[in-house]
Amino acid sequence: MVNLNEVSLFAGAILLYIIGSFIIAISLIPSYFLFMQFLKTGNLFLILFGFAFSYFVFGIVLMFVVALLVRLFRIRLMPGTYKIGGKESLIWLLNAGFISLVRFLFLPFTRSSINILFYRLLGAKIGKNVIINTTCVYDAHLLEIGDNSVIGGDAAIIGHSAEGNKLIVAPVKIGKNVSIGQYTTVLPGAVIEDGAIIGAMSLVPKFKRVKKGVWGGVPIRRIK
Questions:
Q1: Whole-angstrom distance, CA of residue 7 vs CA of residue 12
Q2: Which of 53, 126, 157, 189 gives the lowest tally of CB atoms within 10 Å of its CB?
């Protein structure tokens, strides 16, 4: 017997690969013509420099193309509970897939300021003097981070959770002067209040409210 959920997800994956290929191709056009100008010089140093610079241009263009596509066509989910296999889960799949193009092809080679620019383009509300040392930010349009907060390396900020045949989507709010350690995972619906410090390799459960203080563990608990 054919499983309609599996068929719809498979169709969504095929659509994602097709559209993703077009996105990459479009983003490569400026870089291609730029690199050809360096190639014409015949100077090895300039050619190598041109390759690196053209790659950077590709990444920037890719960022804007993906953000424009996601926002223009509203390829993102608002908070709620959805059925996996329904049209909403396909929208989420496309959103995650398009953003992954930037996440894997460009963000690992950039500074925090570039990451923040991309997340803001997607709709994240990010304050001043924020440092984000991770590319593992999902559902950025549901993310809010206050001033002077730090997200450690490879921490994961996630605005969705797949449970059985349900997809739960909820915002993540991180206050001011918050520190989140390396490899920590923050799940959907979490609210981390101003001044909270969360140790490395911790887990902030769904819909957990974390007050000011020092926290750590799996799941987190107050240390002091």
A1: 9
A2: 53
C-alpha 184/C-alpha 113 separation (Å) is 21
Structure tokens at 23: 């996105």
Please report the DSSP string for 170-197 in residue order: --EEE-TT-EE-TT-EE-TT-EE-TTEE
With cut-offs at 50, 70 and 90, classify the pLDDT of residue 11: confident
Give the residue extent of every domain in the chain: 1-109, 124-224
What are 153's two structure tokens?
A: 């390396």
pLDDT of residue 110: 87
Predicted local distance difference test score (pLDDT) of residue 23? 97
Is the Cα torsion angle 19, 23, 29, 35 positive or negative in sign?
negative
The tokens for 155 are 């921490």
Task: Please provide the DSSP assignment of 5-23 as one string.
Answer: HHHHHHHHHHHHHHHHHHH
Angle CA 157–159–161, to nearest 5: 110
Residue 2 has pLDDT above 70, yes or no: no
Highest CATH level, class, for 124-224: mainly beta
Dihedral of CA 10/14/17/19: which sign?
Answer: negative
Helices (H), 79-216: 87-105, 112-122
pLDDT of residue 196: 98
| Cβ pair 181, 201 in contact under 8 A | yes
Average pLDDT for 9-33: 90
- Average pLDDT on 182-197 reads 98
